[in-house]
Amino acid sequence: MSNKNQLAEVSLVRSLFTLAWPIIMANILQTAYQLIDTFWLGRLGANAVAAVSISFPILFLVLSLGAGLTLAGTVIVSQFKGANDKKMIDFAASQTVVIVFLISILLAFLGFAVASPLMNLVGAGPEILNDSVTYFQVSSFGFVFLFMFFVFQSLMRGIGNVLLPMYIVFGTVLLNLVLDPLFIFGYGSIEGYGVAGAAIASIITQGLSAAAGLYILFRGKQGIKIKVSFMKLEFKWVKRMFELGIPASLEQSSRAAAMTVMVMLVTSFGSEIVAAYGIGARILSLVIVPSIGMGIATTTLVGQNIGAGQIKRAEKIGDLSVKIAFFGLTGIGLILFLFAETLTAFFVPNDPQVIKDGAKFIRIMSLSFGLLGVQQVLNGVFNGSRFTQASMLISIFSLWMVRFPVAFVLSAKTELSFEGIWWAFPISNLIAALVAFTYYKTGYWKIRTFRNRNELIQSGLG
């Protein structure tokens, strides 16, 4: 390899990591909100934690819609960034902000109105029903703030500015550490609101982060300047945004639904197996964070290079991302394989059977983490080339046509019993990675890329 090629590859690796690590840190910090809420609510008792926990799957489904729509903003802004078209960056950002704002208002009112029937539908018992309804209703008011920060974060990622959103998230997490106990328990003249207090604290921090994000976007000093004159909705833009965003939303929501259905399989084997599964699922959720970070970084770089007409460089980014994700997450998987029992014992130190079963689950999954990383970064390539349908179809195929059926057959029809559920994870990771990689290598996404880029240039609307 020539020195020039070596330097080019080093530059791409540096670009990927420069984008990925702040995204990974921001995602880790976002999970800190849940941990802080759980910590303080646990001081009120198990019912308080249960009231919030039962609301979470539905809240996650709502938030996945916002995350999917804002991903559309990331993709198209990144392509205009690559094309060095500042006017269209600002136009695309302004349209994204107003569309997501209107949707968030609709979802806020809808969430408040249907909170009670939803909590009854998911099985909230009489001892937690009132608290779960109140928590969901108060949280619904925060949808507007949360979606506005999602927009800011996504648009900044589209132009490669990933540090600023991370700093804002870090500041709000620190503030939430103080506000949570203040509004849950009260202090001095401030009344404690119990479970609702956790939602109130979150709304305040979400409101501040949204205000900071919108101020930065309107000020226009960080690479994007949204303008009121650009906020008159154009149908062509709305249509394009939904074409890109809805598949991304369905991909994320299908993951939440699939994990819920897998829990239903696990519960038939008793509480000890449920505990072992819960520990493995926590480990999996942590491993997914760096792979998602790499995937979003790949989306941004691929989108920018496609916008600049550098299709071969976009493919080179995909190739590098695959290598980094595969070897990096395989390395993490080997470490988890070696320390599986120690990790499980950290969560349940006094239950040898749960430690044994949980460690086995981690070991069975861990050696396929590199394959999980491959699927995530290739989803990033497809998203960056504005082919979000491919990411959605691969994820749905992996979760609903492979993982769940394999888990059911192996656990119910073979001597593996509950361990059949464990084996469904690496099997689905392998098949999904093979499908994604094979499709990537066919190059069809590049053909679509040429067509989409020409359409983008001709329409001036992405």
Automatic annotation (TrEMBL):
Q: Name one GO biological process term.
A: monoatomic ion transport
For this record, the Gene Ontology CC terms, alphabetical, are: plasma membrane
| Annotated localization | Cell membrane
Residues annotated as transmembrane = 12-36, 48-77, 89-114, 134-152, 164-187, 193-218, 256-277, 283-303, 324-348, 360-378, 390-409, 421-440
Under CDD domains, the record lists:
MATE_like_12
Listed GO MF terms: antiporter activity; xenobiotic transmembrane transporter activity
Keyword annotations from UniProtKB, A to Z: Antiport, Cell membrane, Ion transport, Membrane, Transmembrane, Transmembrane helix, Transport
Annotated signal sequence range = none
From the Swiss-Prot or TrEMBL record, give the protein name. Multidrug-efflux transporter
Q: Which NCBIfam families match?
A: matE
Q: Which InterPro entries match?
A: MATE_fam, MATE_MdtK, MdtK-like
* Tagged with keyword Transport: yes
Regarding the membrane, this protein is recorded as: Multi-pass membrane protein
